[in-house]
Design brief:
By secondary structure, the protein is an alpha/beta fold. Helix content is about 45%, strand content about 15%. The protein folds into 7 domains: about 40 residues; about 45 residues; about 170 residues, Nucleotidyltransferase, domain 5 (2-Layer Sandwich), CATH 3.30.420.10; about 70 residues, no CATH class; about 80 residues, no CATH class; about 50 residues, no CATH class; about 180 residues, Rossmann fold, CATH 3.40.50. The protein is extended.
Length: about 750
C-alpha cells in the first residue's frame, strides 16, 4: 500500500529532529515497521512515480480522440460498439476512464446583454403552477405573466386555459393595469400566438393580430427553444415561483388572483431594480409609464362568439358543461358569447339566457325559470295521476316532495318509485314510513323502502307479494325440464360491439352517446321501430352539429362583437328596421346582394359579420374575407387552373362577405378578378360588401380596369343598400361621469335630429 507524502515527512521529522526511535514512530503513527524502514533508508524526497501500464485501449487512442473532436457529446457505449468492430477486445470500464480523460470540454455559450429602450418592449409567458380542485374533477392552473423589459414592472393573473380568448383577455387586462402598452410584445411560439413558422416567415393567430392592431402593438417572436431571448419574463416566472407560489395554498382562482395582485403591488414592484440599484421597480415604472402608448377610448372585445347547437333537453354544450336555454329553442341553434365569468346565449341581438360561467367539469347549469317553463309545458300535456294519488292517500308526503325539489332530485322518477311502494305496502304503511324518513332528515326512495319493510315486520304483516291467477289457469304440478336448450349455440352469440359496429358503418355519433341510447332502449324496452327512430334523431343531431362546426371554420369570420353589444344610438343615421329585416335572410333565397356603406369606424364590419353568423346558424355556407386579402389570394396562384380552383372558394358559398372595399387601391387585374367573382355569383348566391365609397367612386379603386361599370351593374341589379353615417366608434371621447344629464340631453337631441 502506498504511503502518502505527509506521513513520510512526519516519519523523517520525528526521526531526524525529535530523535525518536523507529519502534516509537511505529507505535505513535500506527504504520508498519517496514514502511518506517523504507522511508528512512531510501533517502528519497518523494515516492517514485510509476510509468502508466499499457492497456487494450492504447492502439485505438488516435481513433477515439479524433472521433471525440468531431463529436464531443458521443457516448462511451457508442464508441465501444465502434471500436469493437475494429478489433477491440477489452471491456467498457477502461474505455470509460479513457473517454473521461480525453473528452473535449464544451464551452458555454456567450451571451450579449441587451437593455431595451424605455417603453419599447413587454415580454409575455405562461407558467404551470399546479392544479386546482373544481366540481367534478381538477383543472391545471397556469399563471400569465407580462414584464416590461425596461422597468421590470410585472403583471400576472391565474388562468384555467391557454386558449386565444384567454390570451386576449389577459393582454387587455395587462394594458389596463399598466394604463398603456409598449411598442412590442415578445412571445414564445405557442399555437395561440403563431399558427405556422418557417425561419423568419411567421403566420400569427388572427385573434392576436386583432388585439395587437387595436392597441397599435407589434408582436414579436423568440427563436424556438431559446428562453434566453426573453430572460426578463423567465426570471419573473422563477421569482413568482420562489417568492409567491412556494408553500402557498390557493383555494380558488379568485382568491389566488387577489393575493397575486396584492403581492405584485406591495412586494414585486417595490423590490430594487436589478440594474438601477438605487431605485425601485415602481419608481422606474413611473418614469416608463409616461413613454407607453396611450390606450384607445374603447378597448377591444375579448369574449368568445360562436354558434352553438341546442340539444333536445334545451341545453347548450360548452366545454365539458351544459347550460340551459328556454325550452322553445330546443333542437335549434343560438349564438354563444362567453367570457371567463359569464356565458350568454343570443337569438340574433336578443339575450335569451345568461349564466355565471362554471369552471367545473361535467356540470349542468340550469336557470330555474327555464325549468319551470318546461314543467309547465309538460304539465299541460298530461295529468300526473300517481302524484295526485299519493298526495290524497299518504298524509305528510307533500313535505317529502318539497325536499326532493330542494335537493334537485328527479320528481317524476321519485313519484314512480314511491308509487310502487304504495302498491306493495299500502297507504297506511307508506304513511308511517314517510313520517319516519322525514324525522331522520332523509329523502332517498331506498331509505323509504327500507322503512316500509321495517314497519311491515313490526306489524307482522305478510310479505307484499301477491300472485293472482286467472280462472282459466289449472292447478297442477309443473315437471322441471332441461334448460340446456335455452343456451344459444356459439354461432348465434353476438361477438361484435354494437357501438363500434354502428360507427364502423358510418354513424358519426360518439361511442358514449350510442351506448347511452342502447342502455335507454334496453331499460325502457323500446320497440325496434322506436330504437331506429332514436338512432336517426341522435345521428341527425350529431351531423348537424358537425356540419355547423365545419361551416363555421370555413367561414373564417374571426373575432367579432355580438349584436347585443352594438350601440345603435351612436351612429347619426342607420336604418335599424331594414337591418333587422336582413337578419331574416330573405335576400339569400333569390341571390340578392347587400351593401353596407359608411365612413370608417361606424360598425360596417360588425354588422356584416353578424349577418354571416346568422346565415351559418340557419344552415347557409359562408365565406368572410377582406377584398384585398381575397384578391391577393387569387393573384398569388401560379397558373390559370390554380386560379380557377381557388376561385371556387369565393363563388360556391351561399353568402360571401367582402370587407373594406376601397381602403387600399388595386390594379386592373384585381378588378378583373373581382368582376369574375361577382359575375359568377350574379342571381345565384348573395354577396355582402362593406365600403366607404359611393358606386361612382369605385372606378378609383381599380384604375385602368374596363370592367368596373359591368361590375357595379351586376352587383346593384338586386341589391339592398344600408347607409350608415356617424363618427368613428374608436375615436369617441370617454363619457364624463360628472355630467350624466348633459350627455343624456345631447343623446336625445341627436336622436331627434
Amino acid at each position: 500500500m502506498t504511503t502518502d507524502i505527509a506521513t513520510e515527512h512526519e516519519i523523517r521529522r520525528l526521526h531526524d529532529v525529535e530523535k525518536w526511535k523507529r519502534g516509537t514512530i511505529v507505535a505513535e503513527l500506527g504504520v508498519h515497521a517496514d514502511v518506517v524502514d523504507r522511508v528512512l533508508d531510501s533517502g528519497a524526497e518523494r515516492p517514485l512515480v510509476l510509468a502508466p501500464r499499457p492497456t487494450l485501449v492504447d492502439p485505438f487512442e488516435a481513433y477515439i480522440d479524433e472521433t471525440l473532436r468531431a463529436h464531443p457529446r458521443l457516448r462511451a457505449t457508442r464508441l465501444f460498439d465502434m471500436i469493437r468492430i475494429r478489433g477491440y477486445d477489452g471491456g467498457i470500464a477502461i474505455l470509460r476512464r479513457h473517454v473521461a480523460e480525453v473528452r473535449p470540454v464544451s464551452r458555454g455559450e456567450v451571451y450579449l446583454r441587451i437593455e431595451r429602450l424605455i417603453g419599447e418592449q413587454a415580454q409575455i409567458d405562461w407558467a404551470h403552477v399546479g392544479s386546482l380542485a373544481v366540481t367534478g374533477g381538477t383543472r391545471p392552473l397556469w399563471v400569465f405573466v407580462m414584464v416590461l423589459a425596461y422597468s421590470r414592472a410585472m403583471w400576472a393573473e391565474l388562468v384555467f386555459d391557454l386558449t386565444v380568448e384567454s390570451l386576449r383577455r389577459s393582454l387587455v387586462r395587462a394594458a389596463r393595469f399598466f394604463d398603456g402598452v409598449t411598442r412590442q410584445w415578445l412571445f414564445d411560439n405557442p399555437k395561440t400566438v403563431v399558427l405556422a413558422r418557417h425561419g423568419d416567415a411567421v403566420r400569427y393567430h388572427p385573434g392576436l393580430l386583432e388585439i395587437a392592431g387595436a392597441l397599435r402593438v407589434q408582436p414579436r417572436l423568440c427563436r424556438p427553444r431559446r428562453p434566453t431571448d426573453k430572460g426578463g419574463v423567465e426570471r419573473a416566472n422563477r421569482y413568482l415561483h420562489d417568492r409567491f407560489f412556494a408553500a402557498r395554498v390557493i383555494t380558488s382562482i379568485e382568491d389566488g388572483n387577489r393575493q397575486l395582485l396584492e403581492f405584485i403591488r406591495d412586494i414585486a414592484n417595490a423590490r430594487p431594480h436589478p440594474r438601477l440599484r438605487d431605485r425601485t421597480v415602481a419608481e422606474v415604472f413611473a418614469e416608463e409609464k409616461e413613454r407607453l402608448l396611450a390606450l384607445p377610448a374603447t378597448l377591444p372585445e375579448t369574449d368568445l362568439v360562436a354558434p352553438a347547437s341546442v340539444d333536445t333537453t334545451a341545453f347548450v354544450r360548452f366545454g365539458t358543461n351544459s347550460y340551459s336555454v328556454p325550452p322553445r329553442y330546443a333542437c335549434g341553434t343560438v349564438t354563444l358569447v362567453a367570457s371567463d365569468s359569464e356565458v350568454r346565449m343570443l337569438d340574433g341581438a336578443d339575450i335569451i339566457a345568461k349564466h355565471e360561467r362554471n369552471w367545473g367539469k361535467h356540470q349542468r347549469i340550469e336557470d330555474p325559470e327555464h325549468r319551470r317553463e318546461l314543467l309547465e309545458q309538460k304539465r299541460a300535456g298530461r295529468i300526473p295521476k300517481m302524484r295526485d294519488r299519493l298526495l290524497a292517500q299518504v298524509p305528510g308526503i307533500d313535505a317529502l316532495y318539497t325536499r326532493w325539489v330542494d335537493v334537485g332530485r328527479n320528481v317524476g322518477l321519485m313519484t314512480a318509485r314511491t308509487g310502487k311502494l304504495l302498491e306493495l305496502y299500502g297507504a297506511e304503511t307508506l304513511a308511517k314510513a314517510v313520517a319516519d324518513v322525514l324525522a331522520r332528515g332523509l329523502h332517498d326512495p331506498g331509505a323509504l323502502a327500507l322503512c316500509c319493510e321495517q314497519v311491515r315486520r313490526a306489524a307482522g304483516a305478510p310479505m307484499p307479494v301477491t300472485l293472482e291467477l286467472g280462472a282459466h289457469v289449472p292447478d297442477c304440478d309443473v315437471i322441471p325440464h332441461d334448460l340446456g336448450k335455452y343456451v344459444l349455440p356459439p354461432e348465434r352469440i353476438m361477438t361484435i360491439d354494437i357501438a363500434d359496429g354502428l360507427r364502423g358503418i358510418g354513424l358519426c355519433s360518439s361511442r358514449e352517446a350510442i351506448l347511452a341510447l342502447i342502455t335507454h332502449a334496453t331499460k325502457g324496452r323500446l320497440a325496434p321501430a322506436q330504437v331506429v327512430e332514436h338512432i336517426v334523431v341522435l345521428e341527425r343531431r350529431e351531423r348537424d352539429a358537425r356540419n355547423l362546426a365545419s361551416r363555421t371554420k370555413k367561414a373564417t369570420l374571426g373575432a367579432m362583437k355580438s349584436l347585443d353589444r352594438f350601440d345603435w344610438s351612436f351612429p347619426r343615421a342607420i336604418d335599424r328596421p331594414r337591418y333587422e329585416q336582413l337578419l331574416t335572410l330573405a335576400f339569400t333565397e333569390p341571390g340578392e346582394n347587400v351593401l353596407l356603406r359608411g365612413p370608417s369606424g361606424v360598425g360596417k364590419s360588425t354588422l356584416a359579420q353578424n349577418l354571416g353568423q346568422h346565415a351559418l346558424e340557419n344552415g347557409r355556407s359562408v365565406c368572410f374575407s377582406s377584398v384585398n386579402a381575397a384578391l391577393a389570394d387569387l393573384l398569388k396562384q401560379e397558373s390559370i387552373p390554380a386560379v380557377e380552383r381557388r376561385m371556387k372558394r369565393y363563388t360556391t358559398p351561399d353568402v360571401l362577405l367582402l370587407d373594406e372595399l376601397g381602403y387600399l387601391p388595386c390594379d386592373a387585374r384585381s378588378g378583373d378578378l373581382l368582376y369574375s367573382i361577382i359575375s359568377r355569383r350574379h342571381e345565384r348566391a348573395s354577396t355582402i360588401i362593406t365600403t366607404n365609397l359611393a358606386f361612382k367612386e369605385w372606378g378609383s379603386i381599380f384604375p385602368g380596369a374596363a370592367c368596373v361599370v359591368a361590375l357595379v351593374d351586376r352587383f346593384t341589379q338586386h341589391c339592398h343598400v344600408l347607409d350608415i353615417d356617424g363618427d368613428s366608434w374608436r375615436q369617441r371621447p370617454e363619457p364624463d361621469p360628472a355630467a350624466p344629464a348633459i350627455a343624456l340631453r345631447r343623446k336625445k337631441t341627436r336622436r331627434a335630429t
